[in-house]
Write a structure and sequence with these properties.
By secondary structure, this protein is α+β, with helices and mostly antiparallel strands. It has one domain: Roll (Thiol Ester Dehydrase, Chain A), CATH 3.10.129.
Amino acid sequence: MRLGIKEIEEILPHRHPFLLIDYIEDYEPGVSAVGYKCVSFREEFFQGHFPQEPVMPGVLTIEALAQVGAVAILSLEENKGKIAFFGGINKCKFRGKVIPGDKVRLETKIIKRKGPVGVGEATASVDGKVVASAELTFMIG
């Protein structure tokens, strides 16, 4: 099931400039989601990070992965209209840069859930190469 920006905005509370996913390619409520961020040189963060060598900040890549995971968890009927907050970031590794022109594949699988707390296994890649990965703990509020 593909979701465009309007459908994503019905699930997530995030808005420009902090909505960091352009579309969801596929998702299964409560299980997983795969989305994409098409990185443009016009992104506001490139003005200062870094003007001589533009690189998407790693924390924003992790945030984009969390937003994709939030699509999976907030699309469950019992979570509609709620917000997923960060509870923790574990096993985070950065393995490559995200630069203007990249199309970042963002995949988050929900591996644990207990009440309002859960964990997602998240991987960001560009052209099949992993650029970031982490275990993201979330809390539904």
